[in-house]
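Handout, section 4.2: multi-component inputs.
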Amino acid sequence: MSKRIFNHPEESHTGKRYWRSLGQLQDTPEFRSWLQREFPQGASELGGGEVSRRGFLSLMGASVALAGMSLSACRRPLKNLLPFTKGVEWSVPGKALFFASAMPSRNGAIPLLVTTYDGRPTKIEGNPLHKANQGTTDVWAQSSVLDLYDPERSKSVLCKGTPSDLKAFESDLSKWLAEAGDGASLAFLVDGCVSPTRERLRKAIIEKFPKARWAVYEPNGNALELQAASVAFGQNVVLRPRLERAQIILSIDRDFLGVEGDISLVRGFSSGRRASSPSQKMNRLYVAENRYTLTGGMSDHRLRVPATLAGSLLKAIALEVGRLSGDAGLVEAAKRLPAQDENFKAKWVEECALDLWSNKGSSVVLVGQKQPVAVQALGLALNAVLDSVGSVIEVHSADQEPALSISALADDLKAGKISSLFILGGNPAFNAPGNLSWADIQAGVSNVVHLSAEVNETSVKASWHIPEAHFLEQWSDAVAIDGSYLIVQPVILPIYGGLSSNELLAKVAGKDSDALTLVKETFGEKLPADSNTLELWVQAVRDGICTHSAPKGLQVSLSFDSVAKVCAASRPLRLDSTGFELVFLADSKVDDGRYANNGWLQELPDPVTKLTWDNAALISPASAERLSVVTGDVVAVTVDGRTVELPVLVLPGHAENSISVAVGYGRSAVGSVGLRVGFDVYPVTSDLESRFRKVSSVVKVGRKWPLAVTQEHGALEGRGADITRQATMSEWKDNSSNENFFKKMGIDAHAPQNFSLYTHPPLNDVHAWGMSVDLNSCTGCSACMIACQAENNIPVVGKEQVINGREMHWIRTDRYFASEGGDSAEPEMVSQPMMCQQCENAPCETVCPVNATVHSEDGLNVMAYNRCIGTRYCANNCPFKVRRFNFFDYNQRSIKELYKWNLISKKGTPDSIQLQKNPNVTVRMRGVMEKCTFCVQRVQEAKITAKALAKDSEMIPRVPVDSFTSACAQVCPTGAITFGDLNQQESQISKLRTHQRGYRLLEYLNTENRVWYLARIRNPNFRMPDAQRAGSASREIATHGNSNPHTAGNESKGGH
Amino acid sequence: MANIFPRWSNLLPIKILICVLVLGGGVASGVWYYLNPAYTRVGYEPIQPVPFSHKLHAGDLGMDCRYCHSFVETAAYANIPTTQVCMNCHSQILPDSAKLAPVRESWKTGKPIQWVQIHKTPDYVYFNHAVHVNRGVSCVSCHGKVNEMEVVYHHETHSMAWCLECHRNPQDFVRPVSEVTNLNWTPPAGKTQREIGRELVEKWHLNPPDKNCAGCHR
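Output:
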């Protein structure tokens, strides 16, 4: 018998390649070094700049001496146990209690179920009873629990920067109100979160002060969309698309699966995307956008278009649909829109329009919220012709009365008419459009009251700053993402004091009632006259849903004339062939800057760019070459005579002549986490027409800026070629009888049969836990990463450590670009969540010298932290690179003091942050390895409950089917992640593991993973010009595999 | 040339070796004894703020453990009773006793009584009372005969080896669930603990985590 050669089968280089970064595509030396190392160069040595070896040794000597001195006090420390004096209803020490609440947000509130332990909220889940989100949440809801405990939240009332109290403020307030008369001197600026109680108070205030101004400002809000809707429909309405009813979706610059959407859009889209068999219908998504977004990543056809030209594209499509439908109104309106390029991508437009028109009634066009009103209105006109207004797009009457824009308010302020300005939430001094110079305007107002949770740029310039209560600390109400009424229930008393905006408004309105009474009154007003208010209130607070409050769809008619008028009046920007546009994006993490002090969000890699702790100017590889810049070069971008400096990040798939940049960074007055992180681009924003501007010059500054990009971290030793798999709908149909179609792609297609040197562990428990990830649903939103961080007490490590590759996320979202022949201009994008695969033959276990990581009989690869001595052999031997090492005591040191000497650095976590920790998960210390545990605390809790319930009965204690799930599966807005018991036939996971699309990663390594991935299916329109390119990834890999008859693998030799 | 080393030095290496062995052995057995939970924990008997006698309440008066430790069957923690629980009886019985002054003080002011913790598991150990008492592990197995203790003290070592002793051989310790809080229970005549234990383990499908680290470490 010949000797077995342990060379891994060569990676096939035919056809489509998957790559994480341009570095990998070009195979640069930097990327090579990432491949071969578990952690980057020098990561395991002490940081060069901080401590020299000699210095380290002398310090060590001193610490040993001091340790000896303190040994004398070896006594067991006295610890007390403090029971309640009186039993608290429902409270059982150590058991979780769940409360329904809601998180107000500019896109509509998210119904929540808040987990509290002994009175402290530790984790947020979606409310499973609510139809809008069915138990799922997003990144921001998950991370909001950390905001609650932020030790740097504002703690006291400030009067011109000096601590004061509410009484002093109230006496000032009553003075102003007494002088206000008809209210011409009063103005209110509020954020975009809609609260019916706030609306009621607004009415009361306007009644009392009829001339008071009321403005709403959201830097990334949908103001332009609402304006377009009111132009088109002639009334004040909101649009709520129900994408589950759509078959063909065209997104023109609208990232509806990312920052310009909400959970209901994501859920709606993914429900039309669930393909359990090739005979099922799947929706089709066309996307035209300037930079890669999550929406673009999910698309079947994607067109790179600068944001400036999106209007031209829409016009061309509208004209084509107008021609097909013979609708003169639409054609007339479209013709009026000035466009830069009339014959824009003719074939693409023609086929896309035909697809939209032939699916009339179930096709919809979504236009980006950054686009000018005219473009958005034309989009609505197009939807009206496609019959989607009222069907796919539900139209509801607006949740609030129309309000002034910040520009109109700025004019009034400049005119000097207003002496008292109340800013409730928001941070206009930081994020108002740059051309307004808001800070100067605000300085000219004599009394500025700013209610906010942190002392920010606006607060330091305000005459009064009032701390705002977190939404988990106040009674309030909100309108949910589907338009229904929600009650915001407090789960903890205000930790640092603080008022809610409603309480402040009540003071202005002269009402004495507390927030609870105010909300109860609003609730009562919404009920039918003869209902039992108390009973319904109790039920609504308990369940978190108000069944009577679902809004009714309006029947509206669109006025083509008004659309034509607004189109004719619009003056779109023109982009010349060498010039650039600058597009301002809502950030996927800090939004408009409001979440800047949240470490979880700062450290979350952006779903597309994988950038942490920064924002950057995104440009295409070709444009970068033209400007002769590379990632990390700083450029000066001048817009309208104002200049900002930004580091460049080259992003494949970005449109030419276009620069995108996320707003919300570069905060100058915020807590220590977000202070001066990234670059402030608000100075170059403006309130004119759209949220993109023409760039007058881009100049390379000659400086470099380190960017913490995680995209090359955790590259699987070059084995990543085929770990994401996809096919088109028709390919799947052709291969529907081939069970191995997805299972034998790439290397697995020609790998020899596996055999094991080790004995397989006896997995003889009644349970066998497994997980599946449906790549067809997964958008890559990364909510799972934050959910995991909140559930499993995962620390934040800071920018420097992320650059060193030491981020601690147990689950990461790998983003792959795929293209044939290494084309970096128009690749496809696939996201793939990656966590511990819980291998049954785990490579990490065999190399641990101290048995700190072993296998449990229910199939988990478990970590005993208290046994780990930190050799890191396991991380080296992990083929999936999912193990994380605590290089520092991240829980005991702040990220700024990691390198300080032990005896002089400040140790300990702030008390408030400790309150957030999940009591069921060990807080790990330095020198310990950790990784995804499949939420073993939840597994054990479920097993213990089943056993305790079984008591002395003779049945085998068994956890009920699908009665609990892991944190990542619970949060997933699209339901892409499924967790459950493989031993129970009825469980979801049992059905999914045998799915034809199911495959396991690196099967040829014989690790017997407990995680199954379901291959991605693209649904391209084969008449489209890019159909051959779009959605056919893995084709070459697949054919290669299937044409090789030796896939069954009876060879004895490995390697080709 | 004279010998460099005198004759007595022939035995020096052996003497040194013996000394090192004795010293080393002494240090090792010292550490073994004094740093072992059997020494550091067993017998720990702190003075409590209220001279509460388990012997009187649980022993002589025959009160059930679960009257005060009411969540032991449902929660991970066997809760310390609230002041209210004490006052249920002591507002009637011995309402003026000097020993009960801290209890009345707590009831009046709402400030909790500062009981001193005796049994403490490390932070990385997740012990769950509910699953033990519901599956036939008696209070006495881990806490000793509390019903005979005037002042409660640490009776068992609570070391990991001690835990595993039962997790590996549950038949030597389990008893009928109805007898869990009966600290004086002995196997009925004619049967040994092991015989009864074997029956129960089989009947209840007892399968305590003996190799699964995550059973206790999460």
